[in-house]
Amino acid sequence: MMRFIEGSIAVAEAAALCRPDVVSAYPITPQTHIVEALAEMAANCTLDAEYITVESEFSALSACLGAVAAGSRAYSATTSQGLFLMFEVCFNLAGMRLPMVMTVANRAVSAPISIWNDQQDSISLRDSGWIQFYAEDNQEAADLHYLAYKVAEDHQVLLPAMVCFDGFILTHTYEPVDMPTQEQVDSYLPKFVPHEKLDAQDPISFGMLATPDYYMEFRYANDQAIQRSKEKIREAGKEFLAKFGRDYSAFVEGYRLEDAETVLVALGSLCGTVKEAIDEMRAAGKKVGLLKIRVYRPFPGVEVAAALKGAKRIAVLDKNISLGSKGAVALEVKDALYGSGIPVLDYIVGLGGRDIRKRDIARIVELTEKGEGDLFYGLREGVA
Amino acid sequence: MVVDKTLELFDCGHRACGGCGPALAARLILKAAGPNTIVASATGCLEVFSTPYPETVWKVPWIHSLFENQAAVGSGIEAALKKQGRKEKVVIIGGDGATFDIGMLCISGAFERGHDFTYICLDNEAYMNTGIQRSGATPLYAHTSTSPAGKCSTGNRRPKKDMPAILAAHGAPYVATTSLAYPNDLMQKVERAMEVKGPCYVQVHSPCATGWGFEGDQTMVIGKLAVETGIVVLFEQTDGTVTKVKKVVRKPVEEYLKVQKRFAHLFKPQKNEVEIARIQAIADANAAKYGIDIKLKKPAEKPEA
Amino acid sequence: MALSVGCTARPGKSRANKTGAWRVFKPVFRHDKCTKCGICSLVCPEGCILEQEDEFMIPDYDYCKGCGLCAAECPAEDIEMTKEEK
């Protein structure tokens, strides 16, 4: 049913529709509306879950870990500092191959402290073994939760997944979102069947010590698992299309790519602005296009290379910076295009909620055409 | 709840030091808990020596996540079991480092939320697995590698953190202190804790031969001395009120201190009377607070030879 | 042996680690002063002292580390730690 709702509420309702058994989350701006909405659902018995009001994000994810190990479906949500406090547990969950879904409302990281949007938080967890989805709008943000559980819990995968959507820009804006019914979600997402669980009937030890004789093989197995998730995302996406009419089977989406000479690459809500800017530039005769990356982990290098092979130049819009190096997305796009000879220019944009307008996109395209890239875009004169 | 205590749920083949206190404690705890138990363990000696892949000695379901989150993991397990309508009991085990120090955050939250579990701290009074470093449970003046005795130091500068009091203050319905030296008492208290609904705490004083500096076969002897000198008080507390205390005919603390290398610096090169007196004062304060002294009748006059 | 998913295992394999090889001293259970009190079995950190059919206790020497706790705690002083010849 089409509803005009706040992004956080769409996500909270989507999470609830996934029938989590245990919800364990700690409040942090700009995710608070999600946890509040879920608490209200639990209080009114419309959410049949154990809701644990934990004392920190560290405990939030740890409680989820315990719950999943005991055979229950778990959900959490966080951002920025909260995600970083969960850092240890994130790697632990992935290493223990315990599937769950967590929403990350992308926010800049301290220091300096900022509550506004960029993607440094989830990007910084790219090594963790979590599958990562980035939503362009609130429809995607909601939909990706059903897909994420389905993929994560598949016995060929068994990995945790995060659904990332931009803080304030998406969490706090109202958009039309088509919310499915419980029956529809139930027909898409089956009950969680753990591969192994804590059970007195069949005692198993979880989280053992791996000596140098075994550790590498376990890490290799993890990498194999996240690579296998690609096929599962395709399958789950095709099934979603058949049931709900929206296609999430691709890891990347092109916009007006066919004859584009300059292609912008971006993740998340920025893609919406870029699309509008592209329409304006196209109307003025410029051949520009966008490659939106929706699945960032596992990184779809093959698909990125295939999509960009016809371009003359690439402008990657990174809402993050690996200090001392470059933006994370640009580095991986460059790697995907290695040997193609296509120049990839990196623009660090929008950090800490710095606004990116259509005219900024146009300006970046001009810079790309001049070959001026690998810079922080839009630093304020007199401040920098 | 009748538990078959002949069951060995902690298998042979673990890599603990010979005479290891915590290994014995784990074995006794599982005897008291029975097979319908799920254990969440912290990182530490117990976890490392009991589960080097692919060998595990735990014959109950067991999970280790991180050093400091066992109480949160246990909370999640408890919530999942509740949701699934399952009857297994949750037991959370951590060493003193994991409990008194790095795990405080999660433990405090778990106790404040009132989950139904039994938290057992194997207190060997230092970070043993990493090589005997000082923790919040290390007693006053004990030598550890991060609180060593030296020319300008007499060892650990702070008294032991009162963890049972902290958790009683959280409203824990049952708090008990135990010692490896009294294995039947330990098992009884673990059984009791598991019967009481809510977050219960059992602290197990577990002498560590390697860390404290004594021969492995003296584990029980040392444990008894700790209790007999009043340094360790064995009690039960129900809803904040002490209900049972083990009374002793008290020995001077010196008898306990002088048989452990970690206190050797209090006796050589000269006897540190001031420090020993301070430790004695702690024991005296314990005695007064809990009323552990058995009042002896005055000895009868010796008959003339 | 196939790797488990996520580094898990069922119990049993620890028995392959015969910790009896660690021993320097071996506890000899004489059974002449033994009162079958069971304290030796209770205090063994390995859990390897088991009651036989005649109710006497015998350690499993495959796993006994020779720590001496049983000998130290036996109230009847029936257990003697002897240097093991290897």
Question: In words, what does this structure look like?
Answer:
The complex is a heterotrimer of chains A (384), B (305) and C (86). Chain A is an alpha/beta fold and 384 residues long. Helices cover 39% and strands 18% of the residues of chain A. Chain A is built from 13 helices and 16 strands. In chain A, strand 6 (131-134), helix 7 (138-153) and strand 7 (161-166) form a beta-alpha-beta unit. In chain A, helix 7 (138-153) crosses helix 9 and helix 11 (301-308) packs across helix 12. The mean pLDDT of chain A is 97. In chain B, 35% of the residues lie in helices and 16% in strands. Chain B has an 8-stranded mixed β-sheet, with helices on both faces. In chain B, strand 1, helix 2 (45-50) and strand 2 form a beta-alpha-beta unit. Chain C has 2 helices and 4 strands, in the order βαββαβ. Chain C has helices spanning 39-43, 69-73; strands at residues 25-29, 49-51, 57-59, 79-83. Chain C starts with 24 loop residues before the first strand and ends with a strand. The mean pLDDT of chain C is 94. Strand 9 (205-206) of chain A pairs parallel with strand 2 (62-64) of chain B.
Radius of gyration of chain B: 20 Å
Low-confidence parts of chain B, pLDDT < 50 over ≥5 residues? none
Tally of contiguous helical segments of chain C: 2
Q: Could you say which structural class the secondary elements and strand pairing of chain B correspond to?
A: alpha/beta
Strand order of the largest sheet of chain C: 1-4
Order of neighbouring strands in the sheet with most strands of chain B: 2-1-3-4-8-7-9-10
One letter per element, helices H and strands E, the order of chain B comes to HEHEHEHHEEEHEHEHHEEHH
- In which range does the helix fraction of chain B lie? 25-40%
Low-confidence stretches of chain C: none
Distance between the termini of chain B: 59 Å
What's the helix and strand layout?
The complex is a heterotrimer of chains A (384), B (305) and C (86).
Chain A: E1 2-6, H1 7-17, E2 22-24, H2 32-43, E3 50-52, H3 57-69, E4 74-78, H4 80-85, H5 87-95, E5 101-106, H6 120-123, E6 131-134, H7 138-153, E7 161-166, E8 174-178, H8 182-188, E9 205-206, H9 215-244, E10 252-255, E11 262-266, H10 270-283, E12 288-293, E13 295-297, H11 301-308, E14 313-318, H12 328-336, E15 344-348, H13 358-369, E16 375-376
Helix pairs in contact in A: 1-2, 1-7, 3-5, 7-9, 10-13, 11-12
Chain B: H1 21-33, E1 37-41, H2 45-50, E2 62-64, H3 70-84, E3 89-95, H4 96-101, H5 104-113, E4 117-123, E5 149-150, E6 153-154, H6 163-169, E7 174-179, H7 183-195, E8 199-205, H8 209-212, H9 219-228, E9 235-238, E10 241-245, H10 254-257, H11 273-290
Parallel strand pairs in B: 1-2, 1-3, 3-4, 4-8, 7-8
Antiparallel strand pairs in B: 5-6, 7-9, 9-10
Chain C: E1 25-29, H1 39-43, E2 49-51, E3 57-59, H2 69-73, E4 79-83
Antiparallel strand pairs in C: 1-4, 2-3
